[in-house]
Amino acid sequence: MTPERPFPTGPDDPTGPPPGCPAHGLAAGGPGRLAEADDLEALYERLRREHGPVAPVLLHDDVPMWVVLGHAENLHMISTPALFCRDSRIWSPLRDGLVKPDHPLMPHIAWQPVCSHAEGTEHQRLRGAVTSAMAPIDYRSLRRHITRHTQRLVNRFCEEGRADLVAEFAEHLPMGVMCELLGMPNEYGDRMVEAARDTLKGTETAIDSHAFVMAALGRLTARRRARPEDDIASRLVTHPAGLSDDEVREHLRVVLLAAYEATVNLIGNVLRVVLTDPGFRAQLSGGQMTVPEAVEQSLWDEPPFSTVLAYFAKQDTELGGRRIRKGDGLLLGIAPGNVDPRIRPDPAAGMQGNRSHLAFGAGPHECPGQDIGRAIADCGVDALLMRLPDIQLDCDEEELRWRSSIASRHLVELPVYFGPRPPQAVTQQPSHTPVPQQRTGWQVGSRPACPEAETPAPGPAPEPEPALAAVPAGPAPGAGEPGESGEPRAPRAPGEGHHPPGAWQRLQLWWRGY
């Protein structure tokens, strides 16, 4: 680790704050007041220049905390449970009464009896149950569900020629898929989406919306306790860890809301870049970049959560040259850590093939559902662009609005326009062209090379259609067919005519769940 930087005010200075306090040393460049910052990205870069990879900041009501800006320092903090934990009950400002019960960030920081806040053997018990509940997910079946949900959503607006991809797509797709995985597909609907969105925004009606979500999860827990099935809720209920109904319900809430918020932001960010960056879209359309690679690039550039509140020091230690006191709070700086100049000297450079970003954390509290989020974003964006390849942004990029907080940055709306198209069957592979009607009878022989050949030309005595003729009436194998002049054509080469899908096409169909 780097040597400790001296504080601007010495430890013996009676007028300064106590040594080790995150507010200590803010005078040089002014306090990093996160609640008042209009541009958190610019603030983090200023703090990095002035203080290095670990910087002091102030939360609402001037509550002191550290923000970890370095990539290596963030990884060290979240991967060292002997030094740092997520149990806010040891946070010094909370123990000293500086953080009031109505503090705006208490819903994010307050300790809860869930695996994301637990430590030691209790963490192993709860986290083991959640991980085991997600492990048996069949990702081929999952992609089929994602594709079908995408088809349903696109069918709602494909004939209009216009849509808001945040409100009509990004906010619905993750909820529909997660309700399916949890075991409550019948609970999915506009009301559930609105309740989840309202709960996460923390509006005046957030308590009622949270109660609506919890009531649905309570009904699900009771049903699965009585009759388990093959879903996440059933596997939590029947896990050997012996979770109570309250523990099952709370962990279903954590899984649902965390996966929902992260994936909504991820889908919105990917689609925004596709619609506003011609070079990015050209790479995607031209095959130089796949949709999964586009998703990983977005996880580097615009992670769904910009920071995580919070980690807490279990003992006196040192991080990034700063003396960290027992009980100090630290923000996991996902967004600033992803653009640390020590690992990304050129922030504009592509990061294809590199998954070392901090978007899903690491260590004991690494996101257990990250592959689900990736699958929803990969498959959903791919299917949407297959249905609407001519989609364009319906406003100037500067007109896009964001709802920002210390924890995340949420795109408010993404208006688009496109050529109107008819709906497609949800079981159909997404396509921008209508699928031809299936033939009603058996086809014997080779399919004609052009559609016109299927309909005989008008005339007094049309010849029978060779492709539909019965086998005994057709020519012997290898014999030529009559041409326009009546002379026999050259024999058809083996395999000529309609070809079955090749290996690459079969792999694509399998990957998309068909």
Automatic annotation (TrEMBL):
Xref: InterPro entries: Cyt_P450_B, Cyt_P450_CS, Cyt_P450_sf
CDD domains to which the protein is assigned, alphabetical: CYP_unk
Stretches with biased composition (Low complexity): 466-479
Compositionally biased spans, kind Polar residues: 425-443
Biased composition (Pro residues): 1-21
PROSITE patterns the UniProt entry points to: CYTOCHROME_P450
Organism domain of life: Bacteria
Biased composition, class Basic and acidic residues, residue ranges: 486-499
A molecular function (GO) term: monooxygenase activity
Region (Disordered) residue spans: 1-31, 422-505
Family assignment from sequence similarity: Belongs to the cytochrome P450 family.
Protein name (database record): Cytochrome P450
Species name: Streptomyces tagetis
